[in-house]
């Protein structure tokens, strides 16, 4: 006697009834990149259909996202080089790019969830994620915590719905939670970039965000991609410090980490389907060597199957359009 597994695969309706994981538009978070100026919508050569946009164009994009049913964005600021400095001052100002963008977007789209990327690499002239210690030429962890707390308050005061610190500083979640709570923002959630690897998959992002380090790399603060146990420790530590959502970044090459984390934490898990993953699929589509739409959905379901609840993805608009036709 043997088990006939094919009984539950005999037609699409039966397969749908027993399907363990599904993809929903509510799972999706769409990244947006805002620049100073007007009437700017510059496509990124390595990331087709992804743009740097001035705020007027961002508002048009948000309108389209709302009509598609996408409920959340993650917002990145992209500065010109002449506005950057050693400590990322623009990110610490109520007149800075992100602060101004938050006010405008929230005024027009009050129900759109705006998650802000909290970091300094897009705002510093050296391209690293915090203040540089001149003796070591590496990021000074504790000084960066101090300015990160200031940046968090700027985001909170100007309308952020959630803050996502991406710099991988030790103690960042504790620092932000304490600062937010003490200033009346105890209900503002933190999405921790709790397991962020030093990855080659970020390459195209550095073109769109203009955040390539001017020297060295980020291996002293982002994680060694060979380490799974350390990845789990990083995320569980962020949970202890007060994170509301845990993230694994990149996603596709790290599904073992997502699965392990899902089995050790009850918090919602987000994955960042990063620029390199997106660019590879787009290249396959352009070359005509893959069934692009099917591969998108197979990839997204792999994230869900591994244990992710939320997915940050540049495919979000395409997925929303496909889902609306089903």
From TrEMBL:
Residues binding 5-aminolevulinate 1, per UniProt: 206, 218
Biological source species: Campylobacter volucris
Chemical reaction(s) catalysed: 2 5-aminolevulinate = porphobilinogen + 2 H2O + H(+)
Pathway involvement of the protein, from the record: Porphyrin-containing compound metabolism; protoporphyrin-IX biosynthesis; coproporphyrinogen-III from 5-aminolevulinate: step 1/4
Binding site for 5-aminolevulinate 2: 275, 314
Location of the active site: 196, 249
Keywords: Heme biosynthesis, Lyase, Magnesium, Metal-binding, Porphyrin biosynthesis, Zinc
The EC number(s) this enzyme carries: 4.2.1.24
Top enzyme class: lyase
Gene name in the database record: hemB
Xref: PANTHER family: DELTA-AMINOLEVULINIC ACID DEHYDRATASE
Domain of life of the native organism: Bacteria
Binding site for Mg(2+): 234
Protein name in UniProt: Delta-aminolevulinic acid dehydratase
Family note: Belongs to the ALAD family.
InterPro entries xrefs: ALAD, ALAD_AS, Aldolase_TIM
């Amino acid at each position: 006697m043997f088990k006939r597994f094919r009984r539950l695969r005999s037609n699409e309706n039966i397969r749908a009834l027993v399907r363990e994981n599904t993809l929903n538009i509510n799972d999706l978070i769409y990244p947006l990149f805002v620049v100073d100026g007007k009437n700017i919508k510059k496509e990124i050569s390595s990331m087709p259909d992804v743009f740097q946009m001035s705020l007027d164009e961002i508002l048009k994009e948000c309108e389209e996202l709302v009509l598609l049913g996408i409920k959340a964005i993650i917002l990145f600021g992209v500065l010109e080089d002449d506005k950057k400095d050693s400590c990322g001052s623009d990110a610490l100002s109520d007149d800075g790019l992100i602060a101004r963008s938050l006010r405008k977007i929230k005024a027009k789209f009050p129900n759109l969830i705006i998650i802000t990327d909290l970091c300094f690499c897009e705002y510093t002239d050296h391209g690293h994620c915090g203040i540089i210690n001149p003796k070591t030429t590496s990021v000074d962890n504790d000084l960066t915590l101090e300015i990160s707390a200031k940046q968090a308050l700027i985001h909170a005061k100007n309308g952020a719905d959630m803050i996502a610190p991406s710099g991988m500083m030790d103690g960042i979640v504790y620092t932000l939670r304490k600062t937010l709570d003490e200033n009346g923002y105890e209900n503002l959630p933190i999405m921790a970039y709790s397991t962020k690897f030093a990855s080659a998959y970020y390459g195209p992002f550095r073109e769109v965000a203009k955040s390539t380090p001017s020297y060295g790399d980020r291996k002293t603060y982002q994680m060694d991609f060979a380490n799974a146990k350390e990845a789990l420790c990083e995320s569980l530590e962020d949970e202890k410090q007060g994170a509301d959502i845990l993230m694994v970044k990149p996603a596709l090459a790290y599904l073992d980490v997502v699965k392990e984390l899902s089995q050790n934490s009850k918090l919602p898990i987000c994955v960042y389907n990063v620029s390199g993953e997106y660019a590879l699929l787009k290249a396959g589509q352009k070359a005509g060597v893959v069934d692009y739409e099917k591969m998108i959905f197979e990839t997204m379901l792999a994230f869900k199957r591994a244990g992710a609840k939320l997915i940050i993805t540049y495919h979000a608009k395409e997925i929303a359009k496909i889902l609306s036709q089903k």
